[in-house]
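Protocol step 6 of 9: fold each sequence in the batch and record its structure tokens directly after the sequence line. For illustration, a two-sequence batch is reproduced in full.

Sequence one:
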Amino acid sequence: MKPKDIPWVHRRLKIHFETTRSPVAAFMKSRTNDPYRVLVATILSSRTKDQTTAVVSQRLFRAAPTVAALRGISAARMERLLHPVGFFRTKARLLKQLPDALDALFGGRIPETVEELVRLPGVGRKTANLVVSEAFDRPGICVDVHVHRICNRLGLIETKTPEETEMTLRRLLPVRYWKTWNRHLVAFGQTMCTPRNPKCPVCPLRARCETGFGESEDEG
């Protein structure tokens, strides 16, 4: 895949996302576009399947629909609410710290830039970019394992780390694709370009992929 192929690939990723049921689509519905929900649900999603994160997020948001309500939940109850997400005890501790961090750093508001968001407990660049794009409708490139794996498999990039992938994609991707690139590739990685045994023979991107079953004809 070459940079000139990005519009072609994006069109097919969009069709796949809209026509295929994927765990990430259900997860997106559970967190809505509310900044608080996007931030918390994304913190919970690390090292956890989207199906599990969606269920646990809904349970937590019923108990704590706001940042203020989050502060009132005890540490023990927080752990019970977050089980069985990965590293639930660590995430419970981080979420208990979140209200005070927001008050101390940003006057209680959830910030709108990557540079500000990464100052919060439990927030790395992946989470920050997702909050910026999904909650505040601003360009952001969220790189998770699916984005990192598939972009390298396609041959669009050659990177070793998610952060390197993010910075490379910032140079290559037109800004109009930044918001949707993650959600489309996550769905694609969950259902088609899986970590093991990817469905290369029926992949809609096979004509542009450098590691799968390529085709000689140039599809439009």
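Sequence two, same batch, same settings:
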Amino acid sequence: MAQAYCLKCREMVEVQEPKIVAYSNGAIAITGVCPVSGTRLSRIASWQDDPIIALQIAIQREKQAHEFYLDAAENTTDSMGSRMFKWLANQEDCHRVALEKQLKSRLDKGTWLEWREEIEPVLSAEFPEISEAFGAYSPSTGDIQALEMGIEAEKKAIEFYRNNRDYADDPEAQKMFDWFAEHEEGHRRLMEEELKWIQNGRKFFQLPRFMTR
């Protein structure tokens, strides 16, 4: 059970009716009430609080990533870049669905579902050589910022899932968190390579998987 400091009781208490709240700045908090005074409680959430909290945080992260990539797809001036961002948004939505299934299993049965790896992560070997590029491209500030922000967000996601993996004591949970960390690492590599291309005046490149949404 998550704890928070109650200003009225002046001590740490168990949070009653805990909820996960995602703020516009990317922060994720646990809110609830003090079981003694009824005071409203709020503090930044941690994956170490409990498996259910960790899953709720992960779900909120994936929702935020989905919305971010959809927004990037709408705002880029390059059609191939738009397709890449839409593919990333779809990937994050698939992650959300998988996490919600795990959360339901934890809430209903207190167990982790057997983890099945259905999608292969993006590998560097899939990237074309920059010499294969066709068509010059003058990237907008928005394109560069979207890629840079996406890269930083993926780095945080990788760290989050790896930390959860180290904290989890169930083999199925460990496999799941390893899988998510590997996939977010693939997304990070993809955007770093795309950023290199457009900064060199090339158009966004395409992977076959972008075409199968």
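Proceed to step 7 once all outputs are recorded. Observation for sequence two: The chain has two domains: 1-45, 51-211.
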